[in-house]
Design brief:
Strand content: 5-15%
Radius of gyration: 24 Å
Low-confidence stretches: none
CATH class of the largest domain: Alpha Beta
CATH topology of the largest domain: Rossmann fold
Bound molecules: ligand SAJ
Mean pLDDT: 96
Shape: elongated
Amino acid sequence: MTDTTQTVGIIGLGYVGLPLAVEAGKAGFDVLGFDVNPAVTDLINQGESHIGDVPAEEVAALRTGGRLEATTDMSRLAECDVISICVPTPLSKTRDPDVSYIISASEAVAGGLREGQLVILESTTYPGTTREVLLPRLEETGLQVGEDFHLCFSPERVDPGNAVWTTKNTPKVVGGITAACTAAGEAFYAQFLDTIVPVSSSEAAEMTKILENTFRAVNIGLVNETAIIAERLGVDVWEVIDAAATKPFGFMKFTPGPGLGGHCIPVDPHYLSWKMRTLNYKTRFIELASDINSEMPYFVVDKVREALNRQQKSVNGSSIFVLGVAYKRDIEDVRESPALDVIQLLQEDGASVSYHDPYVSELSEEGIALESVALTDEAMSSADAVVILTDHTDIDYGRVVAQSGVLIDARHIAPRPEGTAPFGWIVKPQP
Ligand code: SAJ
């Protein structure tokens, strides 16, 4: 693992796998990317990129240099000296872990497992998955972990849209089934990532990731509950959080919003909850945060109702224009986006909803079928209410305030009209 003559296989060429493939290719490894979707492998083999954080030029350069190839043929895993598994770990309909992607990847790896290979799971999952789900399938080949092959867990820490912290410069935690496995994982990543953080086991590495994301989910839940409490007390939560954030130590700023989106933060903590239920322990903070975060779409719809009420209007029959449907700013991903919940609730209450999102041209999720409309003055001024749900950077919010008759701001991004309170969920009309 101490030279780049190895061939690196990466299973799953999404927002985790493709950036990793590109970094390994740039470091001089031959990279073989695997994906079940031929549209993805074809696109990459044409030197294109379907991931916002990966410029097509980087893919094209690696293709030209013969460093990167994509395939759907899993039998080629035998060609790889290192195999990184970056497949999705969603929740099932009953909100239990769905490790089916990990299982099918494990079986594909086992099919071509040979001496000298290093296998690394990167998908976020409950502590124990690497040892309990992957290892048995690999050892069915008769090969011995830590002797014939190595097996590690190394959490992905990709923050989509974050140009400062990238795959290359974000410290990389890695923990193996055995000490030799950890050493192999550390040696591999050290070839092309800036900082490696070895830990004592695959469980420690799995738990590290779950703690990171649970930390965020619980703290977002805390500020969202603070928002609900502040509303009852007639205090503005945004002002209070900004003031608390002036404390130079012992405080970390999180902001309330329309709910918890993305395929990580709303999902990952439930992997730990599920595992602990099998051990007869209830993870109370995770469940409580989840309850509160799920309440926020209702809170926002209540604000819309209150704002319309100030103009003797009801939600029912109103035209409501939503600004931003992605789960967070400056990305195109709508998975678990709270905007989907807000739109559904408004439609159920009889509103006719349209939206504008510069990153999301159409919305066909969870029974919603809408296309992004242009952000014209007319679209805003003719709506009975405008609701900001995602604070994309490239929108002129001063214009939104000027053109909207009724404006609800769930992200505290809009400038406040002269003479009105500088904070609050309802920008116009003032009480
Ligand atoms: N959110 C709030 N208030 C906050 C912060 C976030 O309401 O103060 C909301 C966001 O709008 C979004 C959701 O929570 O809907 C998740 O936000 P996020 O910033 O955690 O975004 P993700 O899920 O794209 O990325 C996170 C990573 N984010 C950061 O570290 C900033 C990181 O936790 C993980 O590397 C990544 O998930 C992952 O892959 O696990």
